[in-house]
Amino acid sequence: MERSLWGHLPLLMRSNSKESVEYILQALWRTRKTGLDSADRHIVRDMLVLENDSDLDPLLVCLRMLIRRFVYENVSKDDIHKLFPTEVLPELQRLLTLLLQKFQREWRDDLLKDQVTLPRLKAMTWDMENQDAESIDPVAVINLKLQNDAQSHSGELDVKFQLAQDTLEMMLSSMYSIRDQLSNMVSVIFDFFFFFLHSKIFFKVQMWLSKYVLSSSFQDETSTRNLSQETNVM
């Protein structure tokens, strides 16, 4: 199927300028989350002199596939030509390579902005409400201060919510489970590190003992030889 899609790339040669192909690539990247709307599709059809969407859709799929590989796999400028099979016309390869190189930095920056960054907990306070009311169960009021480090929405965020006793117990049970899992992970890492460290120390001690034994054997052999020579002289 992928091979047949590449066969639709020559439709780009119908455009009357490099700027038209550039517009198509930019429109596809701009609508990577939503898809082209009817206005954009009409513009692209006019640029390529296409009568219906049945000719346009395979070309758009092929170009989106090319853009996705180029951006998400972080292909270097020198390796862009490897994205194209041999069946793609050389002039098309050169044109698309030049345009992809042009937009590489901009699209990579957009991709980093798209990445989801979860806010982190900066501070937490709590208080009790309804403690004196007989007809209303007391609840815990939790105040969280979160720090959002995302580039597009950086700053602090205040979150406030209430927890009744049954909800609080359920949450605490989950938190204890998370704590135990984290403790087990830390224990496994510690055991691995201890084993690794112990192995290296054992190896070094073993090497030292081997050298010591060899050295002692050599000294004993030398002493025996010298003693024998002295006996012969005597």
How would you characterize this protein structure?
This protein is an alpha+beta fold and 234 residues long. The protein has six helices and three strands. The protein has helices spanning 2-6, 18-30, 38-48, 53-72, 90-114, 165-233, and strands at 120-129, 139-148, 155-163. It has a three-stranded antiparallel sheet. Helix 2 (18-30) packs parallel to helix 5 (90-114) and helix 4 crosses helix 5. The longest helix is centred in the C-terminal third of the chain and has 69 residues, at 165-233. The N and C termini lie far apart (97 Å). The model is unreliable at 220-234 (pLDDT under 50). InterPro entries: COMM, COMMD9. Residues 118-178 form the COMM domain. This is COMM domain-containing protein.
- The general outline is elongated
pLDDT averaged residue by residue: 77
The strands making up the biggest β-sheet line up spatially as 1-2-3
State the total count of DSSP E strands. Answer: 3
* Helix-strand makeup class: alpha+beta
- Helix amount, in percent? 55-70%
Distance between the termini: 97 Å
Q: Helical element count?
A: 6
Topology as a string of helices (H) and strands (E): HHHHHEEEH
How big is the Rg?
35 Å
Strand content: 5-15%
Task: Please describe the biggest sheet, giving its number of strands, its sense, and whether it closes into a barrel.
Answer: 3 strands, antiparallel
As residue ranges, the low-confidence spans are 220-234
Protein name: COMM domain-containing protein
InterPro entries: COMM, COMMD9
Domain COMM: 118-178
